[in-house]
Design brief:
The chain has about 200 residues and is α+β, with helices and mostly antiparallel strands. It has one domain. Helices cover about 30% and strands about 10% of the residues. It has six helices and four strands, in the order αααααββαββ. It has a four-stranded antiparallel β-sheet, sandwiched between helices. Helix 1 crosses helix 3. The longest helix is centred in the middle third of the chain and has 17 residues. The chain is globular, with a radius of gyration of 17 Å. The N terminus is likely disordered. InterPro entries: DUF3605 (IPR022036). It holds the Pfam family DUF3605. One of its GO terms (biological process) is N-acetylglucosamine metabolic process. One of its GO terms (cellular component) is cytoplasm.
C-alpha cells in the first residue's frame, strides 16, 4: 500500500505546451455512467469566472478559496473521468498510485524510506494538472505530489520551494496551495497546487 499522504471556462488554465491530457478525447458528447450525476456535480463544484494572477494570490493568501475552481466544462470532464476510473479502481487514489504515479508511489515502499524524515526536494514530483482551475491566460496549473504529509495552507516548505524553483527557474512567479481537507478531491495522496506565471508571460 502506498504511503503517499494527504496534505492539494471554455477557457482553462494553460498547461505546458505539448502536455498530453488523458481526457483529451472525451469531448462534450462523450458518454459515461450516471451522466446526470456528473452534470449536477459539475454545476455544484465549478466557478463562473476565471481568476486573475493578482486575485489568485490574494485569495490563496487569505484562505478564501470559494472563487477558485474549474470552469463547468472542465469540471464536467473531470467528473466523467472519475466515473470511468471508479469502474476499474476502487478510488481515484488507487488509480493514481498504480498508473500515473506508480513509479513515484513505489519509492515510498523502498527499504529505508521514512515518512517522518525531513522533507527534501526529491520527495516531490511536479505534474501539469490534467483538469486545471479556471484562470486567466498565461497561468499554468501544476500539481506537486509529495511522499510525505503536506499541511493545508499557502506557505510552501523549503524543500517544496526548492523543487518548484528547480523546475521553473528563479524568475518564474508562483503560488502554492494545499487545499483544506474538505476541498481535496484525492485526500489520500499528499499534494499541493502550484500556479505558475513564467517570466516570459509577464506583462
Amino acid at each position: 500500500m502506498t504511503r503517499l499522504y494527504a496534505g492539494p471556462g471554455a477557457q482553462t488554465a494553460q498547461a505546458p505546451a505539448g502536455h498530453a491530457r488523458p481526457w483529451a478525447a472525451a469531448g462534450p458528447g462523450c458518454t459515461a455512467p450516471h451522466a446526470d450525476e456528473a452534470e449536477a456535480a459539475a454545476r455544484r463544484a465549478s466557478v463562473d469566472r476565471p481568476v486573475s494572477w493578482e486575485r489568485l494570490g490574494a485569495l490563496v493568501a487569505s484562505g478564501d478559496l470559494s472563487s477558485i475552481g474549474r470552469c463547468y466544462e472542465t469540471q464536467l470532464v473531470y467528473e466523467r473521468h472519475k466515473a470511468r476510473v471508479r469502474q476499474r479502481h476502487a478510488t481515484m487514489a488507487g488509480y493514481l498510485a498504480t498508473e500515473p504515479l506508480a513509479g513515484f508511489a513505489a519509492q515510498t515502499r523502498a527499504p529505508g524510506f521514512d515518512p517522518r524524515s525531513p522533507m527534501v526536494a526529491s520527495d516531490f514530483s511536479l505534474r501539469a494538472n490534467d483538469f486545471p482551475y479556471y484562470t486567466d491566460d498565461g497561468i499554468e496549473h501544476w500539481v506537486l505530489w509529495c511522499k510525505k504529509r503536506l499541511q493545508p495552507g499557502s506557505v510552501a516548505p523549503a524543500a517544496a520551494a526548492q523543487a518548484i524553483v528547480r523546475r521553473f527557474g528563479p524568475d518564474a512567479e508562483w503560488v502554492y496551495l494545499v487545499n483544506p481537507v474538505h476541498r481535496q478531491s484525492v485526500p489520500q495522496l499528499s499534494h499541493a497546487h502550484v500556479f505558475v506565471k513564467r517570466s516570459t508571460a509577464r506583462g
